[in-house]
Automatic annotation (TrEMBL):
Pfam families: MPC
Statement: the UniProt record of this protein carries the keyword Transmembrane: yes
Membrane topology: Multi-pass membrane protein
Keyword DNA repair: no
The species this protein was found in: Miscanthus lutarioriparius
UniProt keyword terms in alphabetical order: Membrane, Mitochondrion, Mitochondrion inner membrane, Transmembrane, Transmembrane helix, Transport
InterPro entries: MPC (IPR005336)
Compartment annotation: Mitochondrion inner membrane
Protein's UniProt name: Mitochondrial pyruvate carrier
UniProt record similarity statement: Belongs to the mitochondrial pyruvate carrier (MPC) (TC 2.A.105) family.
Source domain of life: Eukaryota
GO BP: any one term: pyruvate import into mitochondria
GO cellular component: mitochondrial inner membrane
Annotated function: Mediates the uptake of pyruvate into mitochondria.
Amino acid sequence: MSAAFKAFLNSPVGPKTTHFWGPVSNWGIILASVADTKKPPEMISGNMTGVLCVYSALFVRFAWMVRPRNYFLMVTHSCNECVQLYQLSRWARAQGFMEKKELGGPTVKIDPKP
């Protein structure tokens, strides 16, 4: 076995720790969300997707602040944040939250010369 591989195996964020297997298991959430992009947006839960966005944003920060830095966890949650934000935008569009709305009322013209 090479020295670099042994160092990886025995590192504080290597495969012998939860700092490695936690992010690996979180990829299941990401893969499921990517698969859900093929489903109609009416099936998306806005509450759950919003919670997953907050969850991933918090864990991106956690992965950056924890010592030793867990770049694998940070990348995992960054990817999840991107997918969840996309799903949230699909849900919001389907609910009509992202439609352009015409502002009513009279048009006021401002004279540039006083």
